[in-house]
Design goal:
237 residues, mainly alpha, Nucleotidyltransferase, domain 5, two-stranded antiparallel sheet, 8 helices, 4 strands, elongated, Ribosomal_uL18_C_euk
């Protein structure tokens, strides 16, 4: 989400969610790092289109994992600047939230950051390997695990990656799937509003009776009781 503050409360300017990714061809693995990158990219392109800045700031169209910082165009509107709010999320190196950050930056947003928490950054040598990060963005880690598990246990592979198998996604197709999704997001990042369905509410308790209905119910019970009483008296005589 991209949120700005007002005196009377925060306002959501734009939002994007990973459950929108099947529309762009990513139907599985919606909680991994690669999906987080796609979601960040979608949010960036959507807000820039909303503000009319998508033509000026295309971002990093080639996924190479390199550091990218958008620069404002002279004589035009400045690049849209925002800041990452981690909230209660853990700042573990390689966490999905940094995948969303990288996707938003590559999407053309001006967000101050350093690569120290990205996959591929060596804390000891203070060096950043962009190729390692690129591999994570394109799901190479998932593809490698798929191949490894398939070799070790076909049963475990079919259980763990049943969704991938159902959609015909093999280890060799994962990178192409994400690259295709990136292109599709850039082509049309707009939000599609779902049609509101008319839902018939289900009642699991009896509807309350009106005053007239209650009185009629009492009258019927009295009549029934009196008729039963007359029958008992007649039988006794």
């Amino acid at each position: 989400m991209i949120i700005y503050a007002r005196i009377d409360g925060d306002r959501v300017l734009c939002s994007a969610y990973s459950h929108e990714l099947p529309r762009y061809g990513v139907k599985v693995g919606l909680t991994n790092y690669s999906a987080a990158y796609c979601t960040g990219l979608l949010c960036a392109r959507r807000v820039l289109k909303q503000l009319g800045l998508d033509g000026l700031y295309a971002g990093a169209e080639k996924v190479d994992g390199q550091e990218y910082h958008v620069e404002s165009v002279d004589g035009e509107k400045s690049a849209f600047r925002c800041h990452l709010d981690i909230g209660l999320a853990r700042t573990t190196s390689g966490a999905n939230i940094f995948g969303a950050l990288k996707g938003a930056v590559d999407g053309g947003l001006d967000i101050p950051y350093s690569p120290s928490r990205f996959p591929g950054y060596n804390q000891a040598s203070k060096e950043y390997n962009a190729e390692v990060h690129r591999a994570r963005i394109l799901g190479h880690h998932v593809a490698e695990y798929m191949k490894l598990l398939q070799e070790e246990s076909e049963t475990d592979y079919q259980r763990q990656f049943s969704g991938y198998i159902r959609h015909g996604i093999t280890a060799d197709k994962i990178e192409a799937m994400y690259l295709s999704a990136h292109a599709a997001i850039r082509a049309d990042p707009s939000h599609i509003t779902k049609e509101q369905k008319e839902v018939q509410p289900k009642r699991f308790n009896r509807r309350k009776l009106s005053s007239k209905q209650r009185k009629e119910r009492v009258r019927q019970k009295k009549t029934h009781y009196l008729s039963q009483l007359k029958k008992e008296i007649a039988a006794a005589e």
